[in-house]
Amino acid sequence: MIEINVPVKEDLTKLKAGDVISLTGTIFTARDQAHKRLLEEGAPADIENTALFHAGPIITEEDGDYKMVAIGPTTSMRMNPYQADVIAMGPKIIIGKGGMDDTVREALKEHGAVYVVATGGCAALYVDAIEEIENVNWLDLGMPEAMWQLKVKDFGPLIVAMDSHGNSLYDEH
């Protein structure tokens, strides 16, 4: 497993489709409505060289304190209309489930980024890698659609499904 620190300082073009990685650092969740708002209003936090996770976490709140209950990937193809433009805003790793279209493939190539898949059904496993909920933005969109800023350690395994050279596991299998 290849360990990547986030924000990313290394060259991700060395990663190839099929590589298995884990992440340590800060990642953000972003689903459909968050992607739309990113493009309309700009990022509420610095997403340069970060990872965006297509996920709608289950979170409890008590007296302003948030606790992650479960977090698993959501279907990434729903983000196809927005993803290439969001990648141009600076994130280097997109985490999700399922394939993405050729506009995303081209954006990954252009910006030296990768799309990695998280295994569906492993929501409890991924929760164990979350050390802290650092912040939340756009809670008005609802808990699953809000943009959660998460501090993670050894978040994975994640499989590089689309690399920055235009290769995709979905083409081969």
CATH superfamily: Fe-S hydro-lyase, tartrate dehydratase beta-type, catalytic domain
- Strand proportion: 35-45%
Count of helical stretches: 5
Question: Biggest sheet, open or closed, and with what strands and sense?
Answer: 5 strands, mixed, barrel
The end-to-end distance, rounded to whole angstroms, is: 21 Å
In total, how many beta strands?
Answer: 9
Q: Can you tell me about this structure?
A:
The chain has helices spanning about 30-40, 80-85, 100-110, 125-130, 170; strands at about 1-5, 20-30, 50-55, 60, 65-70, 95, 115-120, 130-135, 145-160. Helix 3 links the parallel strand 6 (about 95) and strand 7. The strands form 2 sheets. The chain has a 5-stranded mixed barrel with strand order 2-3-6-7-9. A two-stranded antiparallel ribbon has the order 4-5. It has 5 helices and 9 strands. It has one domain (about 1-10, about 20-165): Fe-S hydro-lyase, tartrate dehydratase beta-type, catalytic domain (fumarase, Alpha-Beta Barrel). It is of the alpha/beta class and about 170 residues long. Helix 1 packs across helix 2 (about 80-85) and helix 2 packs parallel to helix 3 (about 100-110).
